[in-house]
From TrEMBL:
Classification via Pfam families: Radical_SAM (PF04055)
Protein name: Heme chaperone HemW
GO cellular component: cytoplasm
InterPro entries membership: Aldolase_TIM, Coproporphyrinogen-III_oxidase, Elp3/MiaA/NifB-like_rSAM, HemW-like, rSAM, rSAM_sf
PANTHER family in UniProt: COPROPORPHYRINIGEN III OXIDASE, RADICAL S-ADENOSYL METHIONINE DOMAIN-CONTAINING PROTEIN 1, MITOCHONDRIAL
Function recorded in the entry: Probably acts as a heme chaperone, transferring heme to an unknown acceptor. Binds one molecule of heme per monomer, possibly covalently. Binds 1 [4Fe-4S] cluster. The cluster is coordinated with 3 cysteines and an exchangeable S-adenosyl-L-methionine.
Residue stretches in coiled coil: none
Alphabetized UniProt keyword annotations: 4Fe-4S, Chaperone, Cytoplasm, Heme, Iron, Iron-sulfur, Metal-binding, S-adenosyl-L-methionine
Organism whose genome encodes this protein: Cryobacterium mannosilyticum
Location relative to the cell: Cytoplasm
Keyword Iron in record: yes
């Protein structure tokens, strides 16, 4: 049911933000994330804040859209009262869980609440995640007609044996069909893949990549499987029932993905994300990497506005109680100091293709650039132009690059 919430300061019941959060807000984009914490079954590797029907304990999927709408409306009042300038939502993202377990009308009502509270910017990106077995053509057409622009399908693998290890329930043969339904509805399509599942071979991974490319989505994500403590998968590995993929194999999987995707015309723009062109990058996810502002709605959702970060109570029943009482659902928050914001800036910007301006680094960090070029971790041509751009090897060792750039 998700990892523990971070430690932080108590969040005020009224949700008001400190005066500092409004500084420079007019120059930052504003996005909205709506968390739908429901899944039909719990996948063995999943550490997200999600709940099956038997885990809801007093909460109801039927009531959830109304609760989320109440938080959206309260968020509008809180931002106004905190002195934030009026900003339309540049991006809206429905994540989970499986948002498309809810009726299409529920998602549309939630989107309408964002529209009526803040407005949608011209050309706003509106995305929902979906499992391939949770939608049909009519459902996707309803979303598109209501203003959704994009759908991200959790394909994960094209190999039934790998899907079984992950405990994914969809039939891989249905993926081409749902992609076509989305395209027929006028939606942009992204597919999500996971590599490094125990027992997965390089040939398995190649097959998944080739099928994903063959679907011709405009965006592909490829994430390394992280074995999280407390998950069923972690227990299976601890008992010796499954053997984890080692770091060298993970690197081979990543290198194959980057090679095949590049050959097919996809350009990387963040370590785990590729798009056909700049127009089809996930603008919502880029907002996270570039430290824009966003309000996260729902149980366990995280928000960030002007250097203030907060997170909601985790369980849907606790969330419902807060909403019904008229209190902020925030469980805790932190206000980032200048040093922490600088570390996050370097950490996040280094991982995107445009990188970070070398001149903005500390003097010791700038002194590391020549060594990083010599080690084949950053691109020499980009460095000559004044910015850090990771090479393929650098993307595999991104954390090590960041540590060197943050050298005191």
């Amino acid at each position: 049911m998700g990892s523990a919430l971070p430690l932080g300061d108590p969040a005020p019941r009224d949700g008001l933000l400190p005066e500092s959060a409004a500084a420079g807000a007019a120059g930052r984009d504003f996005g909205v994330y709506l968390h739908v914490p429901f899944c039909r079954v719990r996948c063995g590797y999943c550490d997200f804040n999600t709940y099956t029907a038997t885990e809801l304990r007093g909460a109801s999927q039927h009531d959830y859209a109304g609760q989320a709408i109440t938080e959206v409306e309260a968020a509008g009042r809180i931002l106004d009262a905190s002195g934030m300038p009026a900003r339309e939502a540049a991006t809206v993202f429905f994540g989970g869980g499986t948002p498309t377990l809810l009726p299409a009308d529920d998602l549309i009502r939630m989107l309408d609440s964002v529209r009526s509270t803040w407005g949608l910017a011209a050309g706003a990106e509106v995305t929902t995640e979906a499992n391939p077995d949770s939608v049909d053509a009519a459902y996707l057409a309803r979303l598109a007609a209501a203003g959704f622009t994009r759908v991200s399908f959790g394909m994960q693998s094209a190999v039934p044996r790998v899907l079984a290890t992950l405990e994914r329930t969809h039939d891989p043969e249905k993926v081409p069909l749902v992609v076509q339904w989305a395209r027929d509805a006028g939606l942009d399509v992204s597919v999500d893949l996971i590599y490094g599942t125990p027992g997965e071979t390089l040939a398995d991974w190649r097959a998944s990549l080739e099928q994903a490319i063959g679907l011709a989505p405009t965006h592909i994500s490829a994430y390394s499987l992280i074995v999280e403590e407390g998950t069923k998968l972690a227990r299976q590995i601890k008992r010796g029932e499954l053997v984890p993929v080692d770091e060298d194999q993970q690197a081979e999987f990543y290198e194959l993905a980057d090679e095949l995707l590049a050959d097919a015309g996809y350009g990387w723009y963040e370590v785990s994300n590729w798009a056909t062109d700049e127009a089809h990058r996930s603008r919502h996810n880029l907002a996270y990497w570039t430290s824009q502002d966003w309000w996260g709605v729902g149980p366990g959702a995280h928000s960030h506005v002007g250097g203030v970060r907060w997170w909601n109570v985790k369980h849907p029943s606790a969330y419902a109680d807060r909403i019904l009482a008229g209190d902020s659902p925030a469980a805790g928050r932190e206000t980032l100091d200048a040093a922490t914001r600088e570390v996050e800036r370097v950490l996040l910007l280094t991982r995107i293709r445009e990188g970070i301006p070398i001149a903005s680094l500390s003097v010791p960090g700038r002194h590391e650039v020549a060594g990083l070029i010599a080690d084949g971790l950053i691109d020499a041509k980009a460095a000559l132009s004044g910015s850090i751009e990771l090479t393929r090897r650098g993307r595999l060792l991104a954390d090590a690059v960041v540590r060197r750039l943050l050298t005191d």
